């Protein structure tokens, strides 16, 4: 796909699809998580709006298919998306204090319910039913 085709395709996507397309081209960071939260702020695609439905923030490694719940650096479960508890093999960079500042581009934030991973869009739809 040429850059012109990609730009044209991206222009016809809705805002959520544009953010997802951009994320698929880059690493997961705290900034990208914040951007997702802003985008999904008034939907069931964020932690505090779908928790009652049994959704827990988590991550999917698109290559391996492995999923993990969001955890703090000490290993305890986090009620929101936090990068510090990701498996070390998923981490690209840490800051001087050891906090994760960049995770692999293969990592997707979403939710886990009953052992099944849901993207933010899938969680929105499932929580609405």
TrEMBL record:
<protein>
    <submittedName>
        <fullName>Uncharacterized protein</fullName>
    </submittedName>
</protein>
């Amino acid at each position: 796909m040429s850059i012109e085709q990609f730009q044209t395709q991206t222009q016809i996507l809705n805002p959520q699809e544009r953010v997802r397309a951009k994320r698929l081209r880059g690493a997961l960071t705290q900034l990208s998580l914040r951007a997702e939260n802003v985008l999904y702020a008034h939907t069931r695609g964020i932690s505090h709006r779908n928790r009652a439905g049994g959704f827990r923030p988590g991550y999917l490694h698109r290559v391996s298919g492995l999923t993990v719940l969001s955890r703090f650096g000490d290993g305890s479960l986090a009620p929101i998306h936090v990068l510090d508890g990701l498996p070390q093999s998923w981490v690209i960079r840490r800051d001087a204090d050891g906090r994760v500042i960049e995770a692999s581009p293969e990592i997707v934030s979403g939710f886990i319910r009953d052992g099944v991973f849901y993207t933010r869009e899938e969680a929105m739809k499932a929580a609405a039913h």
